[in-house]
Amino acid sequence: MASQIIASASEKVKTMTGERTQKVADLTQDTKDVHDKSHRITTDYGVKQNDTDDWLKVVNEDKTGPMLLEDPFAREKIHRFDHERIPERVVHARGAGAHGKFTLFESAADVTSAGVLTDTSRETPIFVRFSTVLGSRGSADTVRDVRGFAVKFYTQEGNWDIVGNNIPVFFIQDAMKFPDVIHAGKPEPHNEIPQAQTAHNNFWDFQFMHPEATHMFFWAMSDRGIPRSYRMMQGFGVNTFTLTNDKGERHFVKFIYTPELGVHSFVWDEALKIVGQDPDFHRKDLWTAIESGAYPKWKFGIQVIPESKEHDFDFDILDATKVWPEELVPIRYIGQLELNRNVDEYFTQTEQVAFCTSHIVPGIGFSDDPLLQGRNFSYFDTQLSRLGVNWQELPINKPVCPVMNFNRDGAMRHTITKGTVNYWPNRFQAVPPASKEEGAYIDYPEKIAGIKARMRSKKFKEHKNQAELFYNSLSAPEKSHVLNALGFELDHCDDPIVYERMTTRIAEIDPQLAQDVAEMVGGKMPEQSTRQRHNKTAKGLSQLDYAPAEPTIATRMVAIIIADGYDPVAYNGIKGALTAAGALPFTISPRRNKIFAAGEDRNTGTGVVADHHLEGMRSTLFDSVFIPGGAQSIETLRKSGRAVHWVREAFGHLKAIGATSEAVQFVRDACDLPGMEFSTSGEVVDSYGVVTAAQVKPESFKEAIKMVKGAKHFI
Ligand code: HDD
């Protein structure tokens, strides 16, 4: 698989596909191609070099001797290398990004004057960076964590950044607490353990000390914390922004993206194993999908509340620890995000892209959400230390519309601005401010009166209702995953005060859950419940609510396991059916070399070259496993502990498994459960997601694909 996912460097450049948006075209001004045959290696100051491998030396007859400090080429090469690193992001250090476009299919002119949200003829270039939060740049993709989902819209009126996550709420309400929550989640200060984990004393100590974090930790412990793919998770702006229309009316707004493929997750054991087996799983998944033309898409939605209704809810709509339940504020889907081009170079694009919540365009504004207001300060500031004061001139950050002002100089200034004045107003009337008609950003004239105080409103002090709403709304399997996640995390805390008292917090949300967690981890239950539960549910909180109308297995990876003597009808049949359904079949066998079908002559037959051998890959890296029959093939697989483990492990991870003829008994032995049914003749049987057909008929494949689509792992 790895070989197919990442082609050799030169092939990769040749095959790089994707759309050329206005921003991608703009980037070509700054792009050079190492595969351009006319290039010769030069120093950074342009002198052609004929040896970049040997330092200039004073050599004796043996051709050895001391190196000369005078060698400018060697010094330049080493100096440049010594300074290759920039500070990694203090949070969200590990990420993957891609280019794409935003299209609008319904104008939101009734609530905003923003061109990007009203002009349906436009196509706005975007760059999206997905990330984990806690891990450092070299950590693994599939850890339990919140995922960042940051979108830069290169609009005609300037860059607009929505710096969001895959979870709609946050741990804290006030930005001043951000360093605390992040310090508590990051590796502990005395020994820098553990990496990219919330399973440790400090994280859970913080959760207990901050009741406001309750709602968010329930989300993080749910399946949302271990997404199957960046392409299969929702995105949320989280904070409350505002929209202002041409009439000057203001509305509060939240931004939401919902993936076309549905919202899917790993099971925890699978995610844990992939951390070691393929730490780049999510970035490869995104890269491959885009390279193969299966462009990920999200519906873009807004939830809108008129200013006059700000106080009509029993929660504060400016509190980032709360969702706006869809029953109260429906989502209006008005556009689509599509990612359609991979980056040409990781560092200059994905690493140097810099987002700011403060980057808004006319028609869009902030609210008094205290988390957002602090973020508006923090992002610009962090870019100064990561990239320097001229970070907005970097190719990936440059707007596609004109930029002109009197901000000047600073380290690494690129733009050369002609003219004799660098201030406003000036005697030439050079670069005057824009009028509203010319598209200037006009601040909303909000009347504000108050006293200076460090306070929170009454509604900000209620922290449990929506945590309960979320948990009540999950399906039974999702709830059991929350239990197991809490059990895992608290088991990794070794300070009794941390794991014992956490269950008293959980009991306020769901006493049974708390009881179960307490039993697992040695927690303490409160003597009596401290809170009256409301028992309500809401739609849109369980990820099952986002199953696509038509189940799909497009871009899903299916391992077909064969050995010599396999049944070619079953093998070719399932491979063809999977390919036709848009899935990605991979052949796995005991060796990565030619495998011969039953009856095929080794000398004259073509054989099938396996993509991987059984030891080189693991079931965890595939969505589904299919085993064609063939007496000799199954005999070989039966003797392989690894092959048996492949099937058993896939079953344990709730993956759809398919088997035909002789393979049915093999699969049965690997994952038999009391009451499980298996096909004994021509019929296709689906039991616990294991699809079996004892006889191979062409229609069985169609049927099998239908069942695979409906299997638990894909809904
Ligand atoms: Fe943040 C990065 C999302 C609260 C301070 N944040 C960062 C990124 C995402 C988020 C997706 C990575 C952007 C990228 O890919 O480059 N952050 C959020 C969300 C929040 C949130 C959804 C709550 C609603 N963040 C938050 C607060 C503060 C910060 C309250 C500070 C007061 N965040 C930062 C930062 C980062 C950052 C330190 C690190 C790198 C960067 O900004 O560019 O400034």
From TrEMBL:
CDD domains per UniProt: GATase1_catalase (cd03132)
GO MF: catalase activity; heme binding; metal ion binding
Keywords for the protein's UniProt record, in alphabetical order: Heme, Hydrogen peroxide, Iron, Metal-binding, Oxidoreductase, Peroxidase
Domain Catalase core positions: 42-432
Catalytic activity: 2 H2O2 = O2 + 2 H2O
Family: Belongs to the catalase family.
Protein function: Catalyzes the degradation of hydrogen peroxide (H(2)O(2)) generated by peroxisomal oxidases to water and oxygen, thereby protecting cells from the toxic effects of hydrogen peroxide. Occurs in almost all aerobically respiring organisms and serves to protect cells from the toxic effects of hydrogen peroxide.
Protein name as it appears in the record: Catalase
